[in-house]
Amino acid sequence: MTIQALVQSQRDYFLSGETLDYRFRINQLRKLRSMLENYEKNIYRALKQDLNKSKYESFTTELGFLFNEIKHTEKHLKDWMEDESCDAPITHKGTKSFIRKEPYGVTLVISPWNYPLQLAIAPVIGAISAGNTVIIKPSEYSQSSSSLLAKMMRETFDPKYIAVVEGAKEVSEQLLQEKFDYIFFTGSTAVGKIIMREASKHLTPVTLELGGKSPAIIDRDANIELSAKRIVWGKFTNAGQTCVAPDFLYIHSKIKDKLLKEMKKQLKSLYKKNPLGNDDYVRIINENHFNRLLTYLENGTIVQGGNIDRNQLKIEPTIIDHITWNDPVMQEEIFGPILPVLSFEDLEEVIRTLKTMDKPLALYYFGEKEKNQEKVITKLSFGGGCINDTLYHLANPNLPFGGVGASGMGAYHGKYSFETFSHRKSILKQTTKFDLPLRYPGGKLAFSIIKKVMK
Ligand code: NAD
């Protein structure tokens, strides 16, 4: 079937009204969950092939995450779908106002390779729950996950409802020629701009889940041991190929040596002595990215790691000190297991500097004083983040997850996924039992009353 015919078949199906019903949506979510359960082993195998992910990491960051999202959605969907009644001013006596959540229609989800199943399926949970049809375009770089996704979806859903279209950027470009009712994109900022430009041709609304350089600030009074442990975990999970991984560290100069020492210790306990020989340590997705990352090892002083295995495309968890803002590693999102370190004397100076940069997807602040925590949250703009932790905010389905400025627009997870894929339609139901004369021009009394009410 051509892409054009596929989109048309989804449009016809959507217009038939079948996806609107609550029971229908719940049944599809159940089918999705059973699909993931039935294919659990194949999923582990595909993620191992694409990125050398361990079973543990595959479950916690991909499969388990999706099970949680489905469970949360099943539990709350009925409430979320309810009309929301709204107050009205006195001029509207006799009326009822409410918001109806309606699906957009035919939606497109374009996803990246770093969490190839989670990032393709999590938006689909939102699209299903809101009553849409979906076409998914997974990343061509995570080929095993992409073909498994296509197979699982084909066996579970009719393509007129959910379909996977595999391929590289040319396929995305072809898809973007079609008119969709909503586009949900996860990927780089550069491609995000292309998606928005193409979507604008049809005035299609978009969510853009992008990346950027997410800082971790470690202040003088931070808990050294826990900060080190949580930073190391957040950075080197998936070998740093996580959109919200701490991209660089900004450490108070008084605690820098202590923290770096503790981070080395934590790394050893996480990956034992030899991460490259650790069968569960994630590899870099492809040779291009591997070579790009190696250029970052040329500046500064490597205080930990730095070894590589070209055959396996693995780079040891690496910490680089004595980095300046002018080094290549500080010019773009790293997206790999390399962690540059900057130091500071005064938090105000950090805030001033970060304010001049693009708004990041995440920001992490480690420090005990509430006043300083507040200062960071209030004075800096970023998608979301944690105080005294990394990554954990995105695992709470009650928090919207998304970027701001260069790191994206819109948000999802839990209820926010449902909202993202729903249009809020305002309805006013007027009475025919009486007709307030106030709005009609003419009467002197009406004018003085309306002036009082509306002024
Ligand atoms: P990417 O932008 O290169 O590709 C993402 C998707 O877009 C792929 O499916 C790809 O085939 C498609 N694509 C590529 N070029 C295109 C074009 N010219 N026109 C249309 N489609 C095109 O991103 P990536 O390398 O797969 O992923 C890494 C980036 O994604 C990083 O910047 C990372 O921070 C970001 N990311 C963000 C989130 C988030 O939730 N905000 C999550 C994961 C990754």
Question: Which labels suit this protein?
Answer:
2 domains, six-stranded mixed beta sheet, 455 residues, binds nicotinamide-adenine-dinucleotide, Aldehyde Dehydrogenase, Chain A, domain 1, 18% strand, alpha/beta, Aldehyde Dehydrogenase, Chain A, domain 2, single chain, 15 helices, seven-stranded mixed beta sheet
Structural features, described:
With 455 residues, this protein is α/β, with parallel strands linked by helices. The chain has two domains: 3-210 and 407-427, Aldehyde Dehydrogenase, Chain A, domain 1; 215-395, Aldehyde Dehydrogenase, Chain A, domain 2 (3-Layer(aba) Sandwich). 42% of the residues lie in helices and 18% in strands. The protein has 15 helices and 18 strands. The strands form four sheets. It has a seven-stranded mixed β-sheet with strand order 10-13-14-9-8-15-16. It has a six-stranded mixed β-sheet with strand order 5-4-3-6-7-17, with helices on both faces. Helix 2 packs antiparallel against helix 4, helix 4 (55-81) runs parallel beside helix 5 (118-129) and helix 9 packs across helix 10. The longest helix is centred in the N-terminal third of the chain and has 27 residues, at 55-81. The chain is globular and about 80 Å long. The termini are far apart. The model has no long low-confidence stretch (mean pLDDT 96). The structure holds nicotinamide-adenine-dinucleotide. Nicotinamide-adenine-dinucleotide binds next to helix 7 and helix 8. Nicotinamide-adenine-dinucleotide is lined by residues 110-114, 119, 137, 139-140, 168-169, 172-173, 186-188, 191, 194, 209-211, 243, 333, 335, 361, 403, 408. It comes from Ornithinibacillus bavariensis. This is Aldehyde dehydrogenase. Residues 22-49 form a coiled coil.
